[in-house]
Design goal:
alpha/beta, 9-stranded mixed beta sheet, 6-stranded parallel beta sheet, 10 helices, 17 strands
């Protein structure tokens, strides 16, 4: 076993989640590499010092450049706004650091293409943060599909729906300003990643994207909303299967509506993140009069569950998904090879989003640009 110095850029919601994950991952999974919380960077010295005290970092800085060049930092976790991703990642690779970057990868596919090229030139480990697909239930769904247990897949429906912007009187904020902070930049990457992980690449799509609440209250009066609230995508996967995605931040009543339904010639699967410890499975081979969806409660027999709990049905949670991500990142560094999802996988998600915007502009079907590089099989 050996330790590995971790630097985290960002001390907000995701910065804390990654700090907790790096503190816990060695105990949960008995990893060969043992994280050492070396330095955290936030926008102010006082704020960074407070986060270092709270999260258990040895040092703090208000300059991310100091973090990425620090000799005691071996790997960098980028948990800062996406307009900072490219500069931090490129500097980290240049300094010889492995990089984990939260989704979405940069401001769009222009940024992510540059980040992919830098990652590949560096020969270092790089991962994009898509945590929801790592629940034991979704990992089980991937196994069932890969094993052909529900036959040839004919249709996929996915959604990521939340209601944090459903109230039209909610004041304007950073979330309502600028395309990268909109619904397609914020929520869409997660369910697109799920679709690709479960179904394979998207070949073509037709999208509609809209702003439902066009103004928001602010201290100076009504402020125009400059990004989108919801979108829908009809798509065709490279496998030939049909699909549909719906993404919304104004879906009244939905809190974590990361959900999918998959039909195959031999069965079907349903999943909803609001009940993340259950997977619903239908098998056509069951006898007449006994057919129907069966609720499978995740337990120690399912991927990554046993490391957290020995009791079936007791469940895992959001933070556990981040710990699983940390395990995968450390395992990739220890093995010296890429691990899914790489920066190329993050770039693929951005390409689908670009295609959706192009479809919205053209009012029709568009092809999704194929990606070259070290994409790992989903």
């Amino acid at each position: 076993m050996s330790d590995i110095g971790i630097g985290i850029v960002g001390g907000g919601y995701m910065g804390k989640a990654h700090a907790v994950a790096m503190s816990a991952v060695a105990a949960v999974f008995d990893t060969a590499l043992r994280p050492r919380l070396e330095i955290i960077a936030t926008t102010t010295k006082a704020g960074a010092a407070e986060k270092a005290r709270q999260f258990g970092f040895a040092r703090a800085t208000d300059d991310w450049r100091q973090l990425v060049t620090d000799t005691k930092v071996d790997a960098v976790v980028i948990a800062s706004p996406q307009d900072t991703h490219k500069a931090i990642a490129l500097a980290a690779f240049a300094a010889g650091k492995h990089v984990f970057c939260e989704k979405p990868l940069g401001l769009g596919s222009t940024d992510s293409q540059i980040m992919v090229e830098a990652a590949q030139r560096s020969g270092l480990v790089h991962m994009t943060g898509f945590n929801y697909i790592r629940t034991p239930a979704s990992q089980l769904a991937r196994q069932i599909i890969a094993a052909g247990e529900i036959g040839r897949i004919t249709w996929f429906r996915g959604e990521h729906t939340e209601d944090f912007c459903a109230d039209p009187l909610q004041p304007a904020s950073w979330r309502t300003r600028g395309r990268p902070n909109g619904n397609m930049g914020d929520l869409a990457p997660h369910i697109i990643n799920a679709a690709v992980a479960l179904m394979g690449p998207v070949r073509s799509l037709c999208a509609e994207i809209e702003t439902v609440h066009r103004t928001r209250p602010s201290a100076s009066g009504p402020e125009a909303v400059t990004n989108d609230d919801q979108g829908q995508l009809m798509c065709r996967f490279a496998s030939g299967a049909m699909g549909h995605l719906f993404i919304s931040r104004v879906a009244t009543g939905r809190k974590m509506g990361y959900a999918y339904e998959i039909f195959g010639t031999g069965g079907a699967i349903r999943f909803d993140q609001e009940d993340q410890n259950a997977l619903w499975l239908y098998r056509t081979g069951d006898p007449s009069g006994r057919q129907g969806f069966t609720k499978i409660l995740t337990g120690p027999e399912h991927p990554d569950y046993k490391a957290f709990c020995l009791g079936p049905g007791h469940g895992t949670g959001y933070q556990d998904q981040i710990i699983i991500e940390a395990r995968d990142f450390l395992a990739a560094i220890a093995a010296g090879k890429p691990a899914w999802p790489t920066f190329a996988d993050g770039h693929m998600v951005n390409q689908v989003i670009d295609a959706a915007w192009a479809s919205q502009d053209r009012r029709g079907w568009v092809d999704v640009e194929p990606i070259e590089g070290d994409r790992e099989p989903a």
